[in-house]
Amino acid sequence: MRAWGATDQGKARTDNQDVYYFSFDDDMALCVVCDGIGGARAGKVASKVACDTAVDEIKRRRKPGQKATSCKKHISEALEIANQVVYRMSQTNDNYNGMGTTMVGALICGGETLIFNIGDSRAYLLSSSKLKRITRDHSTVEDMVEQGNITAEEARSHPNRHLITRALGTDDSVECDFYPLRANKGEWLLFCSDGLNDMLEDHEIEEIMNKDADMSGCYKRLIDEANARGGLDNITVVIVAL
Questions:
Q1: Residue 30: which of 111, 126, 105 has the closest Cα?
Q2: Who's near 153: CB < 8 A, 6+ residues apart?
Q3: How far is residue 157's CA from residue 201's CA, in Å, rounded to a whole number?
Q4: Measured CA distances, 126 to 106, 138, 152, 185, 207 (Å)
Q5: pLDDT tens, 165-217?
Q6: From 19, 29, 159, 198, which residue has the greatest number of CB atoms within 10 Å?
Q7: Distance CA 119, CA 136 (A)
Q8: Residue 40 pLDDT > 80, yes or no?
Q9: At CA 141, angle to CA 136 and CA 147, rounded to 5?
Q10: How far, in Å, CA of 177 to CA of 49, rounded?
Q11: In 62-139, where does DSSP find H-type helix?
Q12: Pairing mode, if any, of strands 235-241 and 188-192?
């Protein structure tokens, strides 16, 4: 298993509130991408604190040899602790008032993959050259699409497209969605903040990922293309080779 990733400020922002993490231990891999909200300083604090806390708590709870799908309770507990830490900071420091963050990630161990997400950062699977989105955005426009009020194409330019309905740290508790995944050797996982998929449609991401068998530079090609389209937000990309 291998992974590559980077975060980029983009062309329009003066700061970067995205944070990412991945590691490979003896019998597991863990990946997390966070996109902070709540102002320049606060958003960066929220994403970093949430990422660091969640990673530490997941690693502390998981037992050696434990499979990914049996860790759902551990991950829920870890993310709830991360949520409480960020929320308490936002309630006790005026500089951090209203801060929060999205989070998407995966625990891979015991031949299993468990995707988790809060907010609108995304996870995708590239299998047999086809890109499939795994996660569902917790956003106003995603709800509108599911209700049949707008099309997926209309959602991309809707004025409320950046309004999220769930975030880590904005309330005293949070619910995380889980996606157990049958991912096989030779397939690829992609994790990203919305700075990527706002600039590139899914079929364009798929095309870039399929251009070269060497995925080690693919994360950079995706970031470069998002910046070439305007780079209106911070852009974070992590690719995991299974």
A1: 105
A2: none
A3: 12
A4: 15, 22, 20, 11, 11
A5: 999 999 999 999 999 998 788 999 999 999 999 999 999 999 999 997 778 89
A6: 19
A7: 9
A8: no
A9: 85
A10: 20
A11: 72-92
A12: antiparallel
Q: What is the pLDDT of residues 216-237, one digit of tens each?
A: 899 999 999 999 999 999 999 9
**DSSP H helices in 5-71:** 40-61
Residue 38 neighbours by CB distance under 10 Å: 24
Highest mean pLDDT of the ranges 1-5, 132-136, 185-189: 132-136
Side chain identity, residue 179: Y
Residue with tokens 């209106």: 232
Which amino acid, residue 90? S
Residue type, position 134, single letter: I
The CATH class that applies to domain 2-241 reads alpha beta
Rounded distance between C-alpha atoms, residue 211 and residue 223, angstroms? 15
